[in-house]
Amino acid sequence: MKQVMNQAMKAKEVEKHRKAVLRMEMDYELATLFEAIEEDNEQKKKQCKQKLERIRNELLRLKAL
């Protein structure tokens, strides 16, 4: 029973860490998107939007949004 509890706590910690990493990735991609908009770089904007959509989907899956 104790082992199951430890595994559950470890899984929650891993999930918490993953959410924090995803939020940092999202901040970075938003900054990159802002630069692409300023540069009027359509290809870079498209790539950033795709990455942001992937991050958003994962955060929704983790119920962090």
Topology:
Layout: H1 2-39, H2 42-61
Helix pairs in contact: 1-2
Walkthrough of the structure:
The chain has 65 residues and is mainly α. It has one domain (1-62). The chain is 89% helix and 0% strand. The protein has helices at residues 2-39, 42-61. α1 runs antiparallel to α2 (42-61). The longest helix is centred in the first third of the chain and has 38 residues, at 2-39. The model has no long low-confidence stretch (mean pLDDT 92).
Brief rundown of the structure:
Helix content is 89%, strand content 0%. With 65 residues, the protein is mainly α.
What is the residue-mean pLDDT, rounded to a whole number? 92
Radius of gyration: 16 Å
Provide the helix percentage.
over 70%
Q: How many strand units? A: 0
- Number of helical elements: 2
Unreliable segments of 5+ consecutive residues: none
- Give the overall shape: rod-shaped
- Distance between termini? 32 Å
What is the ordering of alpha helices and beta strands?
Answer: HH
Q: How many domains make up the coordinates?
A: 1
- Percent of residues in β-strands: under 5%
Q: What's the main sheet like?
A: none
**Structural class, from secondary structure content?**
mainly alpha
Keywords: Coiled coil
